[in-house]
Write a structure and sequence with these properties.
This protein has about 100 residues and is mostly beta strands. The chain is built from two helices and five strands, in the order βββββαα.
């Protein structure tokens, strides 16, 4: 099995005989035990949603720096470009909900 695209909550992997969708797997790698559920499978690839957070730096052998402590982006005022927008289109409420 080859692990690809690791994130805090899951990963994508390739295997000669991948597990079927809905199966639970246990992966032991770099001193970690990752339990997860296969949420999709296509060909030899499959995606796993982990039961617990994955220590990505520990799994990949990298060290992580201190957590980012910059300004909270969601609370910062919006910055709009100086150019006017001629291509803005408003969708009817029935289309906007989709």
């Amino acid at each position: 099995m080859t692990i690809q695209n690791v994130s805090r909550r899951g990963f994508m992997a390739y295997a000669k005989e991948p597990p079927s969708r809905g199966s639970y797997i246990e992966l032991r790698k770099a001193g970690q035990v990752i339990v997860g559920r296969v949420v999709w499978a296509a060909g030899g690839a499959f995606g796993v949603r982990a039961q617990d957070d994955i220590d990505v730096p520990g799994l990949t052998g990298q060290t992580s720096g201190p957590p980012y402590r910059g300004p909270e982006r969601r609370k910062a005022p919006r910055r709009l470009p100086n150019a006017p927008c001629d291509a803005l289109q408003t969708l009817p409420s029935s289309e906007a909900d989709n």
